[in-house]
């Protein structure tokens, strides 16, 4: 059977793929084909175990070099990754130069990533390719003050996590700007999809994935994917087991039950690249 054509050959009008009211969150379903997904997973799983770094709530592979706050100490991306990053660059037209850093995250069904912002080391456009289990990613307006940010994680990701507890309460320093009307929203990330967020979504919002096996679909902005999720035949027992009717299950409970691993490729550009180790 002929495989569904991926979004690989023609340029995309990214504005056609904007989801939600923020205007700076873009969701492209079927950016890669299922066979490309399998190839990527094969590469990801073939690397030596030492390539994986285990964190408390996920494990990750860092490709492209070490990101410091002042720039990237580069390492060439392998060709199985540039095949994808070049396509993302060409198809979206959103990166001023080739993507040079990829973080591969793997989440078990009860794992996630705390609400955070990606920090100043990166160009403010992020492209996240999703593999395997569907998941929801949450966007939350974050308190404006820099005091609410602190670098956690590690030298690989330069992820800036929100101080826990403070992200739940909306900023009290409301300026009455339209931003304040945008509360928390979620995007359902299906396998093979590409999520892009940039500009305001990058600088004024936190993004995170709940470390829970049950994900609420209540705030999902790309509803058509929820319908797709309903229609998909998941293996027996992979959806919330209240009823055997998938439609009713999601419709009534609006919950997605994670049962398998999710892998993502976070593709970013560090503009400042250090060529010489000793000048760093
Ligand atoms: O796995 C994801 O979709 C999010 C990853 C992320 O936010 C990051 O690597 O900074
Ligand atoms: Fe992130």
Automatic annotation (TrEMBL):
Keywords: Dioxygenase, Iron, Metal-binding, Nucleus, Oxidoreductase
Pfam family, any one: 2OG-FeII_Oxy_2
Listed GO CC annotations: nucleus
Residues in Fe2OG dioxygenase domain copies: 98-271
GO MF assignments: C5-methylcytidine-containing RNA reader activity; dioxygenase activity; metal ion binding; N6-methyladenosine-containing RNA reader activity
Organism superkingdom: Eukaryota
Coiled-coil stretches: none
InterPro entries: AlkB-like, AlkB-like_sf, ALKBH6, Oxoglu/Fe-dep_dioxygenase_dom
GO biological process, one term: negative regulation of developmental vegetative growth
Subcellular location as annotated: Nucleus
Family: Belongs to the alkB family.
Name under which the protein is recorded: (wild Malaysian banana) hypothetical protein
Species, as recorded: Musa acuminata subsp. malaccensis (Wild banana)
């Amino acid at each position: 059977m002929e495989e569904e054509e991926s979004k690989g050959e023609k340029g995309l009008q990214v504005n056609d793929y904007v989801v939600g009211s923020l205007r700076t969150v873009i969701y492209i379903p079927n950016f890669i084909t299922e066979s490309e997904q399998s190839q990527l997973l094969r590469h990801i799983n073939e690397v030596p175990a030492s390539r994986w770094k285990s964190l408390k709530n996920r494990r990750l592979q860092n490709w492209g070099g070490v990101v410091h706050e002042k720039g990237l100490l580069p390492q060439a991306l392998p060709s199985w990754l540039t095949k994808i990053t070049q396509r993302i660059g060409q198809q979206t037209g959103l990166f001023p130069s080739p993507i040079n850093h990829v973080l591969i995250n793997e989440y078990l069904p009860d794992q996630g990533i705390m609400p955070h912002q990606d920090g100043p080391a990166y160009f403010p456009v992020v492209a996240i390719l999703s593999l395997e289990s569907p998941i929801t990613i949450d966007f939350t307006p974050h308190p404006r003050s820099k005091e609410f940010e602190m670098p956690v994680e590690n030298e690989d990701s330069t992820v800036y996590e929100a101080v826990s507890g403070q992200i739940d309460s909306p900023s009290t320093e409301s300026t009455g700007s339209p931003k304040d009307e945008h509360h928390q929203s979620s995007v359902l990330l299906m396998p093979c999809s590409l999520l892009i967020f940039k500009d305001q979504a990058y600088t004024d919002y936190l993004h995170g994935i709940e470390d829970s096996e049950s994900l609420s679909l209540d705030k999902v902005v790309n509803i058509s994917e929820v319908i797709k999720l309903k229609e998909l035949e998941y293996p027996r027992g992979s959806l919330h087991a209240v009823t055997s009717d998938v439609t009713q299950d999601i419709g009534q409970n609006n919950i997605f039950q994670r049962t398998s691993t999710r892998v993502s490729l976070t593709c970013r550009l560090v503009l400042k690249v250090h060529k010489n180790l000793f000048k760093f």
